[in-house]
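Issue 218. Parser rejects a valid record. Input:
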Amino acid sequence: MNSKLKTRFGMSLAYMGGCPIFLLISGYLTYFYTNVAGLSAGIIGTILFVSKILDGVSDIIFGNMIDKTRTKMGVCRPWVFRMSIFGLIGILGLFLVPKVGDTAKYVYVFISYNIANAVVATIYQLAVISLPTYLTRDQNERGIIYIFANSGQFVMQFILSTFMFKIISALGSDQRAWVLATGGVAFFGMILTMIAVSLCKETVDPDEIAKASGTDAKVPFAQGIKAVFSNKYWWMILGFVTLGTGVYSGTATISPYYAQHILGDTTIADKTRRFSIRNRTVESFLNRLVS
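Output the parser choked on:
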């Protein structure tokens, strides 16, 4: 396998490996909290809303942290590798809600959710999305890499959306079943990610590029924040992303409830989610080709 093909295949595995934590959080976790753990939908919604604000802040902090990383493995690869391990721990933490008083449960949910989502998932996503820019300077090759990556993500999403509820149902549909199913999926994702890290090699040195252009690759945090907040296009993109994220989160979260209360079968949620995934993947694929 030549180096280009190895890198493309590695990125597809990286996106496949990171898919479980994002899909489980966005599509299944709220249903688990309310229908399995027996928590209040109103309180859970409030916790998730507050946590989303913290998630936005963590994006800036951890993005800056990754940009300043310099190791033998590169800039992004060490974070992808580390978060593959912490991703498994984070997923298990989400579904291992202890059988204690309600107040203690909500505190546990707030802490475990923010660790898994605002820390682990955020670092993984930032690192894996940025990784292709450190693999090659060839824009056309980066476009192909992203196509392979999105294709890998589609495959994993399709598999999980096809079998997740079926596996949970076969295991008993109780908390133990959720822990076993989600833990198994997260472990599989961790293995795929570790393979991906071994296949992808960072060849771009940001410090050399910055030196050649007479700039500094490590921009001070305060200076970077000032530049971002003064950029009107950043605010425009933020608005679009916020709207898109809200629509995606809403449609992903509502599927299990709609299937349960309207269609009478939670496993039907898998079919509706697969349809949504196909639409998003085709749209992403076309956008990559256009760009």
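Fixed in the parser; the record now loads. Residues 3-201+219-290 form a domain with the Growth Hormone; Chain: A; fold (CATH 1.20.1250).
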